[in-house]
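Troubleshooting log. The previous run stalled partway through. Resubmitting the same two chains, unchanged.
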Amino acid sequence: MNLSYSAEYERFRAEVRHFLAEQWSDPGGERAASLADLTGAHVRTDARATAFRLLAIERGYLYRHVPRRYGGSEQPADPLKSAIIADEFRRARAPYEIMGQGPSMLVPTLLEHGTETQKERFIRDTLLGTLRWCQGYSEPGAGSDLASLRTRAVLEDGHWVVTGQKIWTSNAQDAEWMFALVRTEPEKPKHDGLSYLLIDMKTPGIEVRPLRQMTGDADFNEVFLENVRVPEANIVGRRGQGWVVSRSTLKHERALIGGAHLTRRTFDGLVMLARALERDGRPAIQDPVIRNRLAELEARLLAAEYHGYRLLTMSARGTEPGLGGLVTKLYSTVLGYDIAKLAMDVMADRGLLAPGEANAPAMGMFGLAYMWSLGVLIAGGAANIQRNIVAERGLGLPRDPRK
Amino acid sequence: MDFGLSDDQFLLKDTIRRYLESECPTTRVRAVMESETGHDPALWQGLADLGVPGLAIPTAHGGSGLELLDLALAAEELGGACTPGPFLACAMAAGALAASDDTDAKARWLPAVAAGRAIVTLALGEDGGVWDAARLRSRARDGRLSGRKPLVPAAAVADAILVAALDDGGPGLWLVERRAPGVDVAPLRGTDMTRRVAAVTLTDAPGIKVAEGRRAIDRARDAGLVLLAADAYGGARRCLEMTVRYALAREQFGQPIGAFQGVKHQLADLATDLEPALSLWWYAAHAHDHIPDRAERHAALAKAHLTDLYDRAARVATELHGGIGFTWEYDLHLWFRRAVFDRAFLGDAESQRLRAADLAGW
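Second attempt completed without errors. Output:
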């Protein structure tokens, strides 16, 4: 066990720092943490950010697993270098790899299953955030049980004609394209009848209706598709293979990096909150109950951070993470909820004030974080689905019965 | 940057595990715990032959010169097998002795401990739940010690006891031989029957001062906290494994109970919390020898977190086993009892957290 980096990696870190110092200064400087920081949603894609990303790709710092001809920097896999890059870019508040569903879900899928034309057309702009995607998976009758989706696509004179409804579609209001699972083989059971299509959101027959979530904002949508004509060539992988295609996971190191630092930021914000707010005539942080709960949460947070080191090391050594890789989503989302919940308790009656209300502590961002923490418990595989995954794949317990 | 075990460390764990699988089945654990002393010299000698008590003793004194992490990996395996004996006592006391400047005491005791010929223990805690060096009431004057230590592990089989006490200069550690005049050792029945405790009363007992200042005491306590966390992890993991096996074999309503989501999810939640917790005590052990400014706080947080998880693992395991889990004949209660020791010894989870909060500067 050795927590310092070798000379080779320290040189690499210095090189990255030097690059950042030369090429990026954050005009905002050190800003107060905002909700966008807490949720990691703050992503710049303006011209300056794009120019910077292109330079960083040129230097081999971003999208290291993506070939140069598709807009990546094509570097040999090195989890430690990737961790150093993520760390230094975060510290410099410099535009980093885009975290949205396009780069994280569609790009790996295209790299594995896409045609040459699809790769050349879509990957580069997606990585720069200038081409935005939404994910057309969930339907009103197909949430956790995704394979029972019913949106159908029929092949007619060179086009897939798509009709159906998608729901919980994040960012559909802004996305230029959608990657979607649709049923093309109605006679086949469940998973076997699905195909993976790329749909231009400007195609006639698509209607996006915003859904307000509990925070009051509308970040997700219903998407109605009525006889939407999609060129036949926009299928990824073979017809009927959509389920397999959609399961291309992040087979590169970035999957292991980056979760815990957002939780750390929220926790540090909570400690500041507890110092600033009074409770029974003294700073809340002096209350033994609050101190104990903070310490309990910090132990869990530290465990998550060091677990990240362990997974990184396993990846560098070429060891399969096994159970260790399966638990991270459930662990971090439950922890995120508990941190936000303590913030609500620290605010006590002041937590009644809505975000944006003048006297709301920290501009009410913890109230929003509290609600958001419920959203992430559900998104991308709800907590009980995660429990099934841990139990079945991690512990070898029997699979749930499926019809 | 490498946050993982070395090949030697994997080998160490594997060697200890295989030894315990063959030499320390629960039938033997039960025989030892029902014996008068709770100590099995042959089992301990076997562990000494593998180098366990000497892992962190300097090579100059007959040990392997390794670190707290290596000791903690041994503790994990011993906890997993519910191994009875004086491991924790010896590890804490030998660590404190090794850090002392008293070359005579080191030369006399450390090689003997490493070889399994002598047992040493550390007497820290006092009545009223006191584990803080500044609040000790045991006194040393002119090389004589007086005071009461209500819960000293392995004291009844120890050859020497390192006693934390105060003299006019403040806290320190004194080495007292168990058979010396003025040393009264009263064995006690403990909830955990694999690690016996005794009340030690000192009345003008002769002792040699081997360490000055509270730091020596705190370091020994921190090592103990990490070893308890590692023991807890090993035990909790074992509870989880036993229960998964049982849930696959036991059928009700025409299927293995492990097919019910109520069971699956309880076990998944436990596994989800346990898996990252491993890295917390690894880090705490590593910090003890390499990151001094984080060592004390991490030891406290790791002990609190892991022993809480152990308690939960033992409870979930018992609950999911149903009636059989509540019987004396079934082995689960051995771990349940061990969890009680890990939680209570050296200060409970909430007191560790309050200390960690102080150390954070909150």
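Takeaways: Residues 172 and 212 of chain B are 4 Å apart (CA to CA). The domain at 120-212 of chain B is CATH 2.40.110.10 (Butyryl-CoA Dehydrogenase, subunit A; domain 2).
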